[in-house]
Amino acid sequence: MDKKIYLDNAATTMLNSEVLAEMMPYFNSIYGNASSLHSFGRDAKAAVDLARERIAKGIGCKPNEIYFTSGATEANNWILRGVANANRTRGNHIITSKIEHPSILETCADLERQGFKVTYLDVDSYGFVRIDQLLHYLSKDTILISIMAANNEIGTIQNIQAIASIANEKGIPFHTDATQALGAINLNVQEMKIDAMSLSSHKIYGPKGVGALYIRSGLLVDRFMTGGEQESGRRAGTVNTPGIVGFGKAVEICTRDIVANSKKLKSLRDYFIRQVQQKIDMVYLNGHPVQRLPNNASLSFAMVEGESILFMLDMQGIAVSTGSACSSGSLQESHVLKALNIPADLIQGTVRFSLGKMTTKEDIDQTVDVLVSVIKKLRHISPVTKAQVGRLKKGDK
Ligand SMILES: *Cc1c(COP(=O)(O)O)cnc(C)c1O
Fold first, then answer.
1. What's the CA gap between 121 and 133, in Å, rounded?
2. How many angstroms separate the CA atoms of 156 and 386, rounded?
3. Which residues line ligand 1 at a C-beta cut-off of 6 Å?
4. List of E strands, the chain
5. Is residue 396 domain-resident?
6. 397 falls in which pLDDT band (50, 70, 90)?
7. Which DSSP letter does residue 382 get?
8. Closest CA relative to residue 287, chosen from 122, 185, 147, 157
9. Is residue 391 part of a domain?
10. Which is the most buried residue in 29, 76, 81, 318, by most CB within 10 A?
């Protein structure tokens, strides 16, 4: 078998070697507790402070507006619950979209059970949030708008600036889950008038289990964890020094290399899509063709099961995903593809290819070759094919 090919970088990425090198001393050499007052602690704290500065610089905020968390899931939980609880007396309405990450959607569902009202905005066929609906549903009770910057399944990049401006004009806090956007598009929370933002390290070639929530100073948000004075007393628990150091370095690298990386990924991704569309019939690209993450190709193959494609590619050493990482493993339909009104049979035939910094043209050529034979085989044997051909003959899609 040829070398393995990893095309699931939207699920997680390989740790960058420069990042790893920067982290190493903080495991067994500079291992102090960053809260301790002695030199061991001060050295660890200095490293955490540097990481905080690097991340602040990467998104255009002040270092004391960055709060380290265990990842974007925690950051999303914090901002929603924290704003809801802190603003109970002002209002009880939150606006988000139907295509958010489960860490937003399930937290919102939880808040609904606690008596908050949540509006889930529709998206158009490209996955853009319906701005007309946003304007329509805004009310004096609205205490937060949370819309992701870029979607992890279909890659569509939202018009975040426009949404933030509307929120800002109405004086409503605006939060964005920028986990997938970080390192792909420029994010400047000051210029873009973003009040809160969730970030994760492991999607940008940093270590897993670390992320951050940016909270604009002055924004009313309850603390998230109790039991210590870490993170200005708002998120207790001994900080993950090596993780934070790695995250800081990863943000520095990805924001520094944003233009070159995006350009390279985009051209390789577009080449991949062209090749697939030339060599395979009845395959459709999901999301917006241009305003999308440079590494994402979400493709729906008619008359095949995405799960079967995934397993057959895996047998050839090629890693992809169906829908989102969280919904793969279950046979549940992707809520994102559903929100785009994609027909159920095409949703079933959807595969997400997400390229990474290490992806080569050879990897892409190899993947296209394997994919062509896999689709051919599956369409030949698929019971779906027979059922669908039957239906097509009857004239209903
Ligand atoms: C991966 C991802 C998350 C979750 O991040 P973790 O750090 O793994 O908790 C949240 N939102 C989006 C858009 C993601 O892609």
1. 7
2. 33
3. 71-73, 101, 103, 148, 152, 177, 179-180, 200, 203, 211
4. 5-6, 66-69, 93-97, 117-121, 142-146, 174-177, 196-200, 211-215, 283-285, 296-301, 318-319, 350-354
5. no
6. very low
7. -
8. 157
9. no
10. 76
Type and span of the H or E element at 267: helix 258-279
Domain count, the chain: 2
> Is the pLDDT higher at 317 or at 395?
317
Question: What confidence tens digit (pLDDT) does each residue in 4-46 have?
Answer: 999 999 999 999 999 999 999 999 999 999 999 999 999 999 9
Statement: residue 323 has pLDDT above 90: no
pLDDT digits (tens, 9 = 90+) for 233-244: 999 999 999 999
CATH code where residue 357 lies? 3.90.1150.10
DSSP 226-243: -SS-HHHHTB-S---HHH
- Please tell me whether residues 238 and 291 are part of one structural domain: no
- Domain end, chosen from 204, 232, 256, is at 256
Atom of ligand 1 nearest to the CA of 74: 9
The confidence score (pLDDT) of residue 18 equals 98
Let me know if residue 393 belongs to a domain. no
> What CATH number is attached to the domain comprising 168?
3.40.640.10
Does the pTM surpass 0.90? The reply is yes
Q: How confident is the model at residue 285 (pLDDT cuts 50, 70, 90)?
A: very high
**pLDDT tens track for 331-355:** 578 999 999 999 999 999 999 999 9
Q: 353 alpha carbon to ligand 1 midpoint, in Å?
A: 17
Query: Is the same domain home to 151 and 236?
Result: yes
Q: Do 251 and 268 belong together in one domain?
A: no
Active site residue 326: yes
Q: Are residues 226 and 267 in the same domain?
A: no
Neighbours of 140 (CB within 10 A): 9
> Do 222 and 312 sit in the same domain of this protein?
no
In a domain, 357, yes or no: yes
Shared domain for 218 and 193, answered yes or no, is: yes
Catalytic entry in 61, 108, 254, 326: 326
Owning domain of residue 111:
17-256
Q: Are residues 109 and 58 in the same domain?
A: yes
Tokens of 164: 């933030």
Q: How far is the CA of 186 from the centre of ligand 1 (A)?
A: 18
Strand order in the sheet with 117-121: 66-69, 211-215, 196-200, 174-177, 142-146, 93-97, 117-121
